[in-house]
Amino acid sequence: MAKSTSSSSGWLKGRVKAVLSGDTMVVMGIAKGAEIPPEKNIALAYLVAPRLARKEGNDEQFAWKSKEFLRNLCIGKVVVFKTEYTIPNYSRECCSVFIDSTNIAKEVVKNGWAKVKEAREQGTTPEHTELLRLEEQAREQGKGLWNKSPGATADAIRNLPPSADFDANGFLAANKGRSMKAIVEHVRDGSCLYAYLLPEFQFVQVLVAGIQAPSMRRRVINESTKSSALTNTEVNPEPFGREAKHYTEIRVLSRDVRIVLEGVDKNSNLIGSVYYPDGEKAKDLALELIENGFAKYVEWSANMMELEARWKLKAAELEAKKNKLRMWANYVPPATDSKAISNNFTGKVIEVVSGDCIIVADDSVPYGSPASERRVNLSSTRCPKMGNPIMDVKPDPYAREAKELLRTRLIGRHVQVSMEYSGRVPTANGSTDTRVMGFGSVFLLSQGKDSENVSSSGGQQTGVNVAELIISRGFGTVVGHRDFEERSHYYEKLLAAQSRAEANKKGIHSSKDSPVMHVKDLTKESAKKAKEYLPSLQRSRRTAAIVEYVLSGHRFKLHVPKEACSITFSLSGVRCPGREEAYSDEAISLMRRKLMQRDVEIEVETVDKNGTFLGSLWESNTNAGVTLLEAGLAMLQTFFRTNNMTDAHLLAQAEQLARKQKLKIWGKQVEETSEQILDKNVNPDLPAGEKILDKRANPSAKETNLILMEESFPQLSLEQLQRKSNVESQSENGDDINSDANDDYLLDAGKH
Length: 752
Prior knowledge:
The chain has 22 helices and 37 strands. The strands form ten sheets. A five-stranded mixed barrel has the order 1-2-3-7-6. It is of the alpha+beta class. The chain has five domains: 7-157, CATH 2.40.50.90; 168-223 and 230-328, CATH 2.40.50.90; 339-509, CATH 2.40.50.90; 520-662, CATH 2.40.50.90; 666-751, no CATH class. The model is unreliable at 2-7, 224-230, 671-701, 707-712 and 728-752 (pLDDT under 50).
């Protein structure tokens, strides 16, 4: 105990740690650094206050109010005190106590909250005489114990409810989530305390929710080898147990706190969050203990709390572990597969793979290049799985809704991507192989309806956090990361969004079943089944559709909502280079940028023998065939009847423009073809398909057309090339084309 003057004077200095009754308190020394100071119980000399009941029963009159007066007067304050006398067999010293120049005993007596003892054998002292005078004055004024007004005596007696009959579950049901005023009477350890819940004075044990502090005392049962008797042995507190208890005591013991009940454990102990005043603010005891390394996060009681509160505790524990504070001094972090990365870029969203994965075309890479596409997984976000149509695995509930939300919000829109970490994940085929995936936060640069119920990202980022959007709608959850595992830089906001979705019972948090969506996938059906849908699609003229996938530059998988089906669709009269041919990847990349997952319109002309529908497709009133032809990434197939093709003149103009500018496929390839046409002579070693082309050194127009067709269709036989040439000639002369022959060519077009 620190001394305020020389030891010979007998005066000591300390701080009031607790008030036990109207005349007794616990004083501890002034701490230096992190040491736990000594403490002692002292009583106010010459005074006696009414006795308090213990846990249940009735107090003496005014006992509680007497204690409350002393508690409010001196708790937490620095005092100086000196022992005046001691009583044999009495553990407390009777002292004179001062706060600055205020004599606490005189203040208590003057306000009528204690009686003055009679003079002892050694006679009265001047101080005792003054206390007797103040007592008489309080009696005359009817203060405190001397209040004789009607009803004052009855109101001054607490009737404590019995603890044995306390129904913890019923009490929780009536008060869960409420902030209840309480006064802490005892601290068992850093995370367990006993308190009176006001105003009923229900005495309860409360375990602090979400944490566990080191135990103060453990009992080990020893079985004697010589007898069957069992004995209990007390073991020293766990490391930092005393420090954790002291930390809690100096903040909440004998103080007004707020307790928010969260749950009940299997032993009917209340679980709650405890908040204590610190100036004008209220601090969370659990958070303070964890931040200072005096407690650990425990899942079983944390699960009773709000998600955002749990995250704060978990984040605080992680920080304490990183800094190796107190109980974490010897902590060794576990191995993790995640690795922090830093890479920011802007781009346009061209595909939504699922509710938590998108593909963005990087603006810094040349437009149309396949290398521009970057797959981005949303950090710390998990959405329902989309399933696997090939393996006949159906999507999880709300998986389609999550994907559709992002499709309607993101496709074709510019976003800011902040890559945050990478991690190894197992491959989907169930093998032990892993692959590295990149995770980042994506921000939609333009707001509007997308900002509904989503806070601004703040900091250096602008726009709507896409992960926060999807989670706030109830279509995803926040990933619970392990210690030292990398996570979203906006993790706390994601947890807050999940809390809102859970409170509003949105999406996967709802008790309702997800909407059922029945779609007939004609891409897996026979051509006969596909033809059954042809009359309806033709009758509708322009039909709304969604591009599900780009199979090649001119071939797509479409979803037609009106018919509730998915179809394979090929552009009529337009052919892009085949797989592994020059400019094939570029054509696919262009169509992915322009059409992937976009709302489009189609006109169906016919269906080929493979069940592929042929026709025209528009996105925002722009013909997709015209886009390909203008870019020099497709040829117009002139053997089709151009009078039946929609926008035939626009297609022809687009191809002619690309030819003149010698774009892409019309560059060196065409020049070399012309030279081959002029220079080829009969060569017996040529493949059979080329011999007819070498009949003359100066081929006719018809033979030149065959050469061009062969360049475009190298896989077709000679007979097929000749038939195509004949069909083209008939079309140019205005003759009717045999429907069976036409079907063959449509089949060929659908294949390529």
